[in-house]
Design goal:
Elements: H1 5-9, H2 12-25, H3 31-34, H4 37-46, H5 57-65, H6 72-84, H7 88-100, H8 108-121, H9 124-133, H10 141-153, H11 157-170, H12 176-188, H13 192-204, H14 211-224, H15 227-239, H16 247-259, H17 263-279, H18 284-296, H19 300-313, H20 318-330, H21 334-347, H22 354-365, H23 369-381, H24 388-400, H25 404-417, H26 426-438, H27 442-454, H28 460-472
Pfam families: PPR (PF01535), PPR_2 (PF13041)
Family: Belongs to the PPR family. P subfamily.
PPR repeats: 175-209
């Protein structure tokens, strides 16, 4: 059974889980070290070097040349900060400089951190070479767990399972983290039976499930459309007096119920989620989830009610405005979307083009291309940078107005910004390809299709279908 990508992507449990992993094998520093003024001062020198292509070594060398001392704890703190901002290449550079130029000996936590950074920057092959060259005395649980995380992130089941067995044999498989990594792997690959076997093993060994164990299993049940499984996990979590439920639990459960058409059960879960907000931490993420899910449940009045409650309790940020606008779009309430957008503009938050994108898409779908173009121009005049979705919306708008050359140019801009695995609509792609084919430029159409595959905008299978379409003028579904 296929995983529901949107179900997995939307869950906060995985972000909690990643945080725990980072804490486990990340560089550890004391509260005093976190506040170290010298470490902060060094960081202020290197932090402006935003481009990954700009080396940090000259700045670090200059700092030392000026007679400043650099402590291990300061460098560990800098690495930690850089990782938190996803500046992995720079963090890896500092890690190497710490040992290669300052001659600090590596500790297991340093090795674990470096493995994680190397995977993100250079890939699994170099990670394995580094791990194999690491002295055995440094290969503690943190290091093995970091390597296991690489394997599970890569979805390399055979290597992950072999390493997990090694951890068992060495007596290291005693905590939840390595089991959670494997559970997450099996969840992502749809191996439900293996998840059950692993959880049974944990029970037999007396390893208590933590919130991540439960939430990974809950997410998997949701992805598989297993309503009974979701109910079982939620009941287990609710009955555990030693565990504080996260609002994400009810969010996942409600999302799953909506996907299988169980609206009343979903609303019951959302009622519990809202109760947690009212009695506990008033999380922006929880409010955003409520807005999204009430919209999907078709409850417009609840969307407005939660939005008003949100305004009373919290400062709504960009993601919150996106959530309420996206929900109102589902009801065809263009005027309502425009009103919320005006409220966002009045707040003068950082100009995140994803907010106007909701309205731009609405305009383009409803034949209001000129309003969409004006909104794009307005956003750019305020310093906003259009997203790939902005240009895809405009491409669709141009197509609906039969302005195919303009649609092709908009899609070219989308391609230049395209993140991995993003896919414009099939209609947009086929129309643009057909435009070149009608112009008699088959070679250009074929080059265009190949450029889309290079940008990972679709699979090789769909590429072949488009190329056949160019030659046969018939797209097979």
């Amino acid at each position: 059974m296929k995983l529901s990508r949107s179900t997995l992507r939307s869950q906060n449990s995985i972000s909690y889980y990643r945080t725990t992993i980072n804490r486990f094998y990340g560089t550890t520093t004391s509260a005093k070290q976190d506040k170290d003024e010298r470490g902060e001062w060094v960081y202020t020198r290197i932090s402006p070097l935003g481009s990954p292509e700009v080396s940090m070594v000259p700045v670090l060398e200059q700092w030392v040349k000026e007679g400043n001392q650099v402590l291990r704890s300061e460098l560990q703190w800098i690495i930690k900060r850089l990782r938190s901002y996803k500046r992995y290449k720079h963090a890896l550079e500092v890690s190497h400089w710490m040992t290669d130029r300052r001659y600090f000996s590596l500790q297991p936590a340093d090795v674990a951190t470096r493995i994680d950074l190397m995977y993100k920057v250079k890939g699994l092959e170099e990670v394995e070479e580094y791990f194999n060259s690491t002295p055995q005395k440094l290969k503690r649980l943190t290091v093995y767990t970091s390597l296991l995380n690489c394997y599970t992130s890569e979805k390399s089941a055979e290597k992950a399972e072999a390493l997990m067995q090694k951890l068992r044999d060495m007596g290291f498989a005693k905590g939840t983290l390595c089991y959670n990594l494997m559970l997450n792997l099996y969840s992502k690959t749809g191996r439900w039976d293996e998840m059950d076997n692993l959880m049974n093993e944990m029970e037999q060994k007396g390893i208590n499930f933590d919130e991540f164990t439960f939430t990974i299993r809950l997410t998997a049940y949701a992805a598989a459309g297993d309503s009974d499984g979701v109910d079982k996990i939620v009941a287990m979590m609710e009955s555990d007096k030693h565990r504080i439920l996260q609002w994400g639990t009810y969010s996942i459960a409600a999302d799953m119920c909506l996907r299988v058409g169980q609206v009343e059960k979903a609303l019951a879960m959302l009622n519990k989620l809202e109760g947690m907000i009212l009695t506990g931490e008033k999380s922006n993420g929880a409010y955003n989830s409520l807005l999204k899910l009430y919209g999907e449940a078709g409850k417009k009045e609840e969307v407005h009610r939660v939005c008003n409650l949100y305004k009373q309790e919290k400062k709504i940020l960009n993601k919150g405005y996106i959530s309420v606008m996206s929900s109102l779009v589902k009801f065809g309430d263009t005027e309502g979307v425009e009103k919320i957008f005006e409220e966002w503009e009045a707040e003068a938050l950082s100009y995140d083009f994803r907010v106007p994108d909701v309205l731009i898409g609405t305009y383009c779908r409803n034949g209001l291309l000129e309003k969409a173009k004006a909104l794009v121009d307005k956003g750019m005049s305020k310093g906003g940078v259009p997203w790939v979705t902005t240009w895809c919306h405009l491409a669709n708008g141009y197509i609906h107005e039969d302005l195919i050359p303009e649609a092709v140019e908009a899609l070219k801009k989308a391609i230049s910004l395209c993140p991995p695995n993003y896919r414009p609509s099939r209609e947009t792609l086929v129309t643009c390809v057909q435009y070149w084919e009608n112009q008699g430029n088959v070679d250009k159409a074929e080059d265009f299709v190949r450029s889309l595959e290079t940008e990972h905008m679709f699979s090789a299978v769909f590429r072949d279908k488009l190329l056949r379409f160019i030659k046969e003028e018939k797209l097979q579904t």
